[in-house]
Structure formats: structure tokens, C-alpha cells
Specification:
The chain is mainly α and about 475 residues long. It contains 20 helices and no strands. The chain is rod-shaped and about 165 Å long.
Length: about 475
């Protein structure tokens, strides 16, 4: 019979009180009392090197159930012991053959009860406080159990095949698609994304982001030569005739400007004449130059085949070719690019771009009817419908999820299993023993009861066979 009280830890000099609000387990060993005296008797509990946690109300209820089952098992052992004594007395008094059968059954029941009591008690503590080898298994082997548990989880739950098989059976793509296809769910996801975006943009410091954006744009622009790309683009524009509209616009604006500002043009021409020429000659020359300039611009505007247009086409074609193949032209373009990027105004413009973009994104994220949120919602609904109805989309999502899960499992398997082993290693052995006993101790006490019953039946059967064979 288990003579160790449920409250006893089995360690001399220590007593574990029922843990709960207001109760704290303290070490009362002489060394701990000496440490408390050294603190001046403040009454503060000693700091233990082991982690102690409290029992919950559920654990307390389970522990009370274990105590009741212990009393039941012990009462059954006491019952068969009394039966054995009475049967032996009756047999000695000549009560008949039946007393031998009863005594044999009761004797075997006691043996079975005591054997199972020893086995059950040896899991949690030393029986009767005697340090018998291979007893108190849980407190002594706690760390090894944690390692074994971690290895078991890693091999049987965190393997690639198990993860893929389980995720494939779940059908994440189909379920996620059906969930996203519901408008209220798409609205919820959109709201959460908008909140996350606003939070991220609020946390970021403008100065840091501006520096990063400016440095990234400048580095990218400096590392990539723009001449060949500009040459190809210009060549394509000239080939397609895309520049002709710009020429038409420039000629039309130039003609209008000349007509509206004829006086300024005449004054500019006359002002550039030598001082020794007569004024009427300067005026006649200015009028002549103005009329020829206006005629040239008008003809160039009205005639698509004007020689000046052809000359401009040839110039642009040659320039596009030089941008792609001429070393000097490309070098001059690169120098010009560097000078432009180094200007403070350009750097300020690049840095200010982040402020404008952030304000625009935050405003769009806050407005439920903004184009950004409407497009995100529509995209989520469309994605949900595709995932819910198209096997190819479902398979793609399933493969992505499986790949991500397998990557996490295979990469961080040791970290995941070490969480189990480290957690178990940090548990206090005595508290762990009490926790485990509170959760499985009630079922273990049935082993004692079953051992008593089965032992009695086995003893009765053996006695009966022996008497039969002896007869």
C-alpha cells in the first residue's frame, strides 16, 4: 500500500503545499533556511534554481480524484488482507475446503495488489522512501523523456512526407478559395491589409526611407548605362514617326508666338545690328528676317515633306545610332547623367518622392472607397473564385503551401524539437511528477485494483488446478 501522502514530495526536508493562488512552494532544507537567515529574516521566499509553476483548479480536482482512487485501491488491498486472515482462521478451525480456496484467492490478490502498487509508485517516487534501483523513474528520467519526446515528434510529425500528406489531405487551396470568394471575408482581409499597411508606413521614419530610396535610385542609375537604351527608344520613335506630332506642335506654337510677338522679334533683330548702319536699313532687314522666319515656320508646319523635317529625321536617326554604338556620344551622355544626379535639386526631388507616395498610400488605405482598396478587394474575390473552381489554381496554392511548410519543417526541425526538450528540461522534477500523476494517476490506480482482482482470480485458479491434480 502506498504510504506516501499525496502532499509529500518524497525528498527529506521538503514539503510541497497544494499550489494555487496565494500558495508558493518554497525550499525548507537547512541550506535554504540558512540563505533566508542571511537575508535578515525578511521572510522573502528563497530564489530557487528550478522553475516552479502553480497547479490550476483543474489539476487540483484531478489530484483529488487520484487520492480517492488511491484510497479505493488501498481499501481493496486491506479487504483481501482481512479476507485472507479470516479464511486462514476458518481453515484452522476446520471450516471446510472452501476456506482454502478463499485464502488462496485472497493471498494471490494481496500479492498482485502489492506488486502493482510497487510498479505504479516506482514511476513517480521511491516506494516507502527507499532508494531502490530503477524507481522514481519520472523525476530521474525527466530530461531523457523530453529528448525522446522531441525526437519522436521530429521523426513522426515533422517529416517531409507526413507534412505533405497531411496538407494535401486538408485541401488548403480549395478551402481558402471558398473562404475568400465570400464578399464579407474579402472585405475583412482588405481591411486587415489596409490596417497593416497603415501601421507599417506609420512606424517607418521618413528620413530613413528617403535616404534608402535616394541611395537605391542613384546607385541603380549610376550602375546602368542609359545611352543604348535611349538610342533604341529614339530609333523606334523615329521609325514609327512618333516624333512628328511633337514637331507639328512645336511649329504651330512657334508660328503663334512669332505672330503675337512680332514687335519683340523686330526689336531683337534691330538691336543686334551694327551701330554704324542707318536705322531704316536695320528696320528693313528686321522686317525681312522676320517675314522669312515666319514663312519658314509656316511652311514647315504645313508641309510634311519639308526639307527641314527630313533633316531633323536624319539627325535623330544618326543620334539614335550614335547613342547605341558611338563611344564618345555614350560617354558624354553618362557624364551628363552623373552631373544631373549629383545636383541637390534632383536628390531632393528623389527624397521627396517617398513623402508623396506614403501620403498617397495612407490616404488610399484609409478610404474604404479608394481605388486601391476596391482593386484589392476585387482581386481577392477573383482569386478566391479561381481557387474554388479551378483545379490548376488549387494545385498551385497547395504546392506553394506544402513547399513553404516543408521548408520550415526541414530547416527548423532541430529548433522546434529543442523547444520541447528545453521546456521539459526546465521543469522542476518534483512538480513535473505531481503534474503527471494528477493527470494519469487515477487511471494508474485502476492497475492496482485490477491487479488485486486478477491476482485473486489467478490464485484461485492455480489453487483449484493444484487441488484437482493432487486429487
Amino acid at each position: 500500500m502506498d504510504r506516501t501522502k499525496p502532499e509529500e514530495n518524497g525528498t527529506p526536508g521538503q514539503r510541497s503545499l497544494p499550489e494555487g493562488p496565494g500558495n508558493q512552494v518554497t525550499d525548507t532544507t537547512p541550506g535554504a533556511r540558512a540563505a533566508a537567515d542571511a537575508r535578515g529574516g525578511s521572510g522573502a521566499p528563497p530564489v530557487s534554481h528550478r522553475t516552479m509553476t502553480t497547479f490550476s483548479a483543474v489539476d487540483e480536482e484531478k489530484q483529488r480524484g487520484v487520492r480517492r482512487m488511491k484510497l479505493t485501491a488501498a481499501g481493496l488491498l486491506l479487504f483481501v488482507a482481512v479476507v485472507y486472515v479470516l479464511a486462514k482462521w476458518a481453515s484452522h478451525e476446520g471450516a471446510g475446503a472452501w476456506a482454502g480456496y478463499v485464502a488462496a484467492a485472497a493471498e494471490a490478490g494481496m500479492v498482485g495488489a502489492l506488486a502493482d502498487w510497487f510498479a505504479v509508485t516506482a514511476l513517480f517516487r521511491h516506494p516507502l522512501g527507499i532508494p531502490i534501483p530503477h524507481t522514481a523513474i519520472i523525476p530521474r528520467k525527466k530530461n531523457q523523456l523530453g529528448v525522446s519526446l522531441g525526437e519522436f515528434v521530429g521523426e513522426n510529425f515533422l517529416s517531409e512526407d507526413v507534412v505533405r500528406q497531411r496538407l494535401r489531405a486538408v485541401g488548403i487551396g480549395t478551402r481558402l478559395g471558398a473562404w475568400l470568394a465570400e464578399p464579407q471575408n474579402a472585405d475583412r482581409v482588405t481591411e486587415e491589409l489596409a490596417t497593416a499597411m497603415r501601421g507599417a508606413l506609420t512606424v517607418l521614419r521618413d528620413a530613413d526611407v528617403q535616404a534608402v530610396v535616394g541611395e537605391a535610385i542613384t546607385r541603380r542609375a549610376n550602375s546602368q548605362e542609359i545611352g543604348p537604351g535611349m538610342g533604341k527608344m529614339l530609333e523606334r520613335i523615329v521609325t514609327d514617326g512618333g516624333h512628328r506630332r511633337a514637331v507639328d506642335l512645336i511649329c504651330a506654337r512657334a508660328q503663334n508666338w512669332l505672330i503675337l510677338h512680332d514687335d519683340q522679334v523686330m526689336d531683337a533683330i534691330e538691336g543686334g545690328a551694327p551701330g554704324w548702319t542707318p536705322r531704316f536699313v536695320d528696320k528693313r532687314i528686321g522686317e525681312r528676317v522676320y517675314k522669312e522666319l515666319l514663312r519658314f515656320v509656316t511652311e514647315m508646319r504645313d508641309s510634311p515633306t519639308h526639307p527641314a523635317r527630313g533633316a531633323l529625321d536624319r539627325f535623330l536617326t544618326d543620334f539614335a545610332r550614335d547613342l547605341q554604338s558611338d563611344t564618345d556620344t555614350r560617354a558624354r551622355v553618362e557624364r551628363l547623367k552623373g552631373e544631373v544626379l549629383d545636383r541637390g535639386e534632383v536628390q531632393d526631388l528623389i527624397a521627396s518622392a517617398w513623402t508623396a507616395v506614403r501620403a498617397m498610400v495612407v490616404s488610399a488605405a484609409e478610404d474604404e472607397r479608394s481605388e486601391l482598396r476596391l482593386r484589392v478587394r476585387a482581386s481577392l474575390l477573383s482569386l478566391g473564385r479561381r481557387m474554388a473552381t479551378e483545379p490548376s489554381a488549387q494545385a498551385k496554392v497547395d504546392r506553394w503551401v506544402e513547399g513553404a511548410a516543408v521548408h520550415v519543417v526541414t530547416t527548423y526541425r532541430k529548433e522546434i524539437t529543442s523547444l520541447i526538450t528545453d521546456t521539459v528540461a526546465a521543469w522542476d522534477p518534483e512538480h513535473t511528477t505531481r503534474k503527471i500523476e494528477a493527470n494519469i494517476g487515477r487511471d494508474l490506480q485502476f492497475i492496482r485494483i485490477n491487479g488485486t482482482v486478477v491476482g485473486s482470480l489467478a490464485g484461485l485458479l492455480i489453487y483449484t488446478v493444484s487441488r484437482a491434480l493432487g486429487a
